[in-house]
Amino acid sequence: MKIGLVADEAFDLPQEIIEKYKIGVAKFKVDLQELKDLPGNIYQKTREAEKRRISSTVKTSQPSINDFLNVFKEKLNEFEEIFCVTISSKISGTYNSAVQAKKFLQKELQDKVHVIDSLNGSAGEGLVALEIIELIKDNLNSQEINNKIEESKTKLLGVYHDPKWLEASGRFPRFVPAIMQRVEKMSIKPIIGMKNGKLSVTGIKRNITDLSSALFEEFEKATRVARENGKKIVVGITHADDISQAEKLKEMVLSLKNTKVAFINLTCFPIGGHIGPNSLILAWQE
């Protein structure tokens, strides 16, 4: 392929896809602080810290300009042009880092880098990346790919296990976690989504038996008309160390006609850390 792909770590695609398509990844910086010596992945460390009553605060920061610049240079040695997909500019400065990094390239290389604001994250950003890969495989040129991505719509829903992580993240206004703590006691759980690139509460579920069922019900309702009209729905699923719920959600999605699950993967901590262990995310494109 003449066109390659770069993304920030928040696109949450499985490693086998990253390797297959030689995707360059700009990593977020994660400071584990007191968790660094605990066993397991980041979510397992967090749970263990809670048991031991150790402070489980983990600091994250976006990829730097230099991080993107290094990946751009590497991939421009492999491809004639590259697309770069980032997490929504409405919730992170990552997009700006990528845009600024492009300006540090030699002038003749700057036009060969196309930075895309996914207005999404995690599974949603991953689906945007996969869409670009498919357009590249179809031999579209960069302008045609840009046009197609501008026309496409990617939707995302997520649900948390415990609202305390929302408050710890600092990504929500202070009153939001407080309200969610209260409604939790009433067996009510909000569904979180992306709206115009921003996190927002998109629905309310009562008497939830499990997170996968809650997300599936919202997904089924939101895609019913499109599926009945024969549109193919492509789905991505990520989880904060709860593969059983992710697999259950996959099976429910595949029980519907005209659906395809493109990937299941662990949610990167710069996203999952804000909604906590056992959270679940589902994104789709029609």
List key phrases describing it.
single chain, 286 residues, alpha/beta, Rossmann fold, Hypothetical Protein Tm841, Chain: A,domain 3, 3 domains, 6-stranded mixed sheet, 4-stranded parallel sheet, 12 helices
Low-confidence segments, given as residue ranges, are: none
Strand element count: 12
What would you call the structural class? alpha/beta
The number of domains is 3
Overall, the morphology is globular
Strand order in the sheet with the most strands: 9-8-7-12-10-11
CATH architecture of the largest domain: 2-Layer Sandwich
Largest sheet: 6 strands, mixed
Question: How is this fold's topology laid out?
Answer:
Blueprint: E1 3-8, H1 15-20, E2 24-26, E3 29-31, H2 42-52, E4 59-61, H3 65-76, E5 81-86, H4 94-103, H5 107-110, E6 113-117, H6 123-137, H7 142-151, E7 154-159, H8 164-169, H9 175-184, E8 188-195, E9 198-206, H10 211-228, E10 233-239, H11 243-254, E11 259-266, H12 269-275, E12 280-285
Parallel strand pairs: 1-2, 1-5, 5-6, 10-11
Antiparallel strand pairs: 3-4, 7-8, 7-12, 8-9, 10-12
Helix pairs in contact: 3-4, 6-7, 10-11
Structural commentary:
There is one protein chain. The protein is of the alpha/beta class. It has three domains: 3-28 and 63-151, Rossmann fold; 30-60, no CATH class; 154-285, 2-Layer Sandwich (Hypothetical Protein Tm841, Chain: A,domain 3), CATH 3.30.1180. Helix content is 42%, strand content 24%. The chain has twelve helices and twelve strands. The chain has helices at residues 15-20, 42-52, 65-76, 94-103, 107-110, 123-137, 142-151, 164-169, 175-184, 211-228, 243-254, 269-275, and strands at residues 3-8, 24-26, 29-31, 59-61, 81-86, 113-117, 154-159, 188-195, 198-206, 233-239, 259-266, 280-285. The protein has a six-stranded mixed sheet, sandwiched between helices. A four-stranded parallel sheet has the order 2-1-5-6, with helices on both faces. Strand 1, helix 1 (15-20) and strand 2 (24-26) form a beta-alpha-beta unit. Helix 3 (65-76) packs across helix 4 (94-103) and helix 10 (211-228) packs parallel to helix 11 (243-254). The model has no long low-confidence stretch (mean pLDDT 90).
